[in-house]
Amino acid sequence: MEKIARQGLLYDFYGALLTEHQRNVYEDVVLYDLSLSEIAAERGISRQGVHDLIKRCNKILEDYEDKLHLVEKFEQTRKLAREIRNLTKEFALTENRDLIRRIEEISGEIIELEAH
């Protein structure tokens, strides 16, 4: 997954667990694509301080993901949902009953992902 996209997902799932200051600076980098120099000037801290804070936030968010796996489960669920959508389209064209069985299997996998 592209680094910025991953950072965005990690922030979506775990950003509320950062301090307000961490969230504000992290949003400036990840969501608003501001440079470290722009953020440093705006917030009255050094460029190195911004860099260190972003690095620390990335580690915090990755640590949460390592423990909770919410982004991983989300990605797996999204992949399975796409597969269901494709199978449904194929079923509409072919009426192949085997596709329904596969859709049922996939929905079971999604339910299992959410249970763990």
What is this entry, summarized?
The protein is an all-alpha fold and 116 residues long. 84% of the residues lie in helices and 0% in strands.
Question: What does this entry look like structurally?
Answer:
- This protein is mainly α and 116 residues long.
- It is built from six helices and no strands.
- α1 packs across α4 (47-68).
- The radius of gyration is 20 Å and the shape is elongated.
- The mean pLDDT is 94.
Q: What form results from the Cα inertia axes?
A: elongated
Number of helices: 6
Number of DSSP E strands = 0
Q: Give the percentage of residues in beta strands.
A: under 5%
Order of helices and strands: HHHHHH
Give the uncertain stretches in residue-range form.
Answer: none
Question: Helical residue percent?
Answer: over 70%
Structural class: mainly alpha
Largest sheet: none
End-to-end separation: 23 Å
> What is the averaged pLDDT score?
94
- In angstroms, what is the radius of gyration? 20 Å
Q: Which secondary structure elements does this structure contain, and how are they paired or packed?
A:
Layout (H helix, E strand, L loop, with lengths): L2 H12 L5 H11 L5 H8 L3 H22 L1 H25 L2 H19 L1
Helix pairs in contact: 1-4, 2-4, 3-4, 5-6
List keywords for this structure.
116 residues, mainly alpha, 84% helix
